[in-house]
Amino acid sequence: MTTSRLSRAVATGVLLTILAGCGGPTAGTTSPPSAGASQPVAPPSTAPITESVTTPPPTEAAALAALPAKLRSRVPRFAPPPAPAKVTLPKGDKAPNFTRIPTTEKIAFITIDDGWEKNPLALQLFQAANVPVTLFLEVDAVKSDPGYFIPMQAAGVTIQNHTISHPTMTRLSYEGQKRQICGGADRLAKLFGPRPTLFRPPGGAFNGTTLRAAKACGMKASFTWTQTTDHGIVFFQGPTRVVQPGDIILMHFRPRFVDDFLAVLNAIDKAGLTPARLEDYIP
Ligand SMILES: [Zn+2]
């Protein structure tokens, strides 16, 4: 790689880090500029989602039929994913970090971070899309309203660890990182049931200490990403403008949640891939 290509790549990395930046409660509330390919979001239903875990989720067809008509046609239908082949995890005192899952199968992974913005259509969209989705939740973003996320678990959503308060991990000591990772896993377990075993470092910033702390806290692996999504647009990190097998796509619970989720689904569909469950690939 030439110096100029390298600096472009570095600059792109910086830009993507900014685009990917997970923020606090106010970070996602600015009104995004109108984005080219996306369409306006239908106003959210006035009725809050009040379904409890004891209510059986609607079938995929019923959930799709219940969506506003202008959204219904934007939800692609996917073939089921192939039988998963688990990766091999290295031995040692560090959890590995994956940017993508090494595979040639026609699959990609949907991950959604933080949890600040609680769009009332999210559950319905998950039910209608009926695809595996992994949430990396920040305790501080979800603790006031865990009931928003609980019914999602019956709709194919799994909940994993994104720390308690979203610090930049590389600025913390080993003990400080452990408090965030172990504490995040313990508190998410209290809120949602199974204790997380997968970890996403806030902002994608990690070092060897992070991976040791993650392993010590029972995390099998850490995950960064290959694409980010915001304002209804999927941003590609590499030169290929198509989702590749094994790619891990990042989005957030942000004001344009509906457009972002539909953009992710359609990018996967356009690539001829199908969403698979990240947990199924980790032994
Ligand atoms: Zn985040």
Automatic annotation (TrEMBL):
What domain of life?
A: Bacteria
Q: What SUPFAM superfamilies does this protein's entry cite?
A: Glycoside hydrolase/deacetylase (SSF88713)
Q: Which CDD domains match?
A: CE4_NodB_like_6s_7s
- Regions of biased composition (Polar residues) lie at 27-37
One family from Pfam that matches here is Polysacc_deac_1
Which Gene Ontology molecular-function terms are recorded?
A: hydrolase activity, acting on carbon-nitrogen (but not peptide) bonds
Q: What is this protein called?
A: Peptidoglycan/xylan/chitin deacetylase, PgdA/CDA1 family
Task: Give the organism's phylogenetic lineage.
Answer: Bacteria, Bacillati, Actinomycetota, Actinomycetes, Micromonosporales
